[in-house]
Amino acid sequence: MDNSSRYAKLTEFGKKLLSKPSLNDGLVLISQTARDLLDADRCSIYIYDENKNELWTTFADGINRIRIKADEGLAGYTLKEKKPIISNDPYNDVRFLKEIDHKTGYVTRSIATCPVFSSSRKIIGVLQLLNKKGGFTTDDSKFMIFFSHYISSYLELASMFADENE
Fold first, then answer.
1. Nearest residue to 46 (alpha-carbon basis) of 102, 115, 141
2. Phi, psi dihedral angles at 129 (to 5 degrees)
3. CA–CA separation, 43 vs 45, rounded Å?
């Protein structure tokens, strides 16, 4: 998908996100849009719990909630480095958590992650996309940065809501 098509679809996404009546509906929309815009098979949205020093998914395609230590996996590495990561050969990447694939039966062939920052520039989560045909590119990474800025206030709200209900 070319950049002009991506940004046109992003504008439509923004209108839909503003009209969503529930937080969960918004998270589903974020995931679907990220997958569509980047031709990925799956999307996970991790929230960073600083008190527990862990990342957990508010929404992960195809599986229940995932909880990992904040320094584990590519999502944890993204949190630590505060920058996007691409791994198009994750089974040969020491940062990759193979255990999650083993538990779910899913096979990850490529992975792209991007930090999500709050309005005060604290990292609040990680956006993770899986299995793009042909692998992820640096252009995808750049777009993920833009997309994560676009959704950050929504995820900041999700993080506050989760804190109240944990």
1. 115
2. -120, 145
3. 7
pLDDT tens for each residue of 31-69 = 999 999 999 999 998 989 999 999 988 766 666 778 899
Q: Round to whole Å and give the CA distance between 74 and 98.
A: 11
The answer to whether the CB of 95 falls within 8 A of the CB of 73 is: yes
CATH number of the domain bearing residue 69: 3.30.450.40
Long-range contacts, 141-145 (Cβ 8 Å, 24+): 141/84, 141/86, 141/112, 141/114, 143/3, 143/6, 143/37, 143/38, 144/34, 144/38, 144/84, 144/112, 144/114, 145/84, 145/114
Domain count, the chain: 1
Q: Which residues span the domain enclosing 158?
A: 3-165
Joined together, the tokens standing for residue 65 give 């909630």
Residues 13, 28: Cα–Cα separation, whole Å: 12
Q: pLDDT for 106-125, tens place per residue?
A: 999 999 999 999 989 999 99
What's the pTM value of the predicted model, to 2 decimals? 0.85
Residue count (the chain): 166
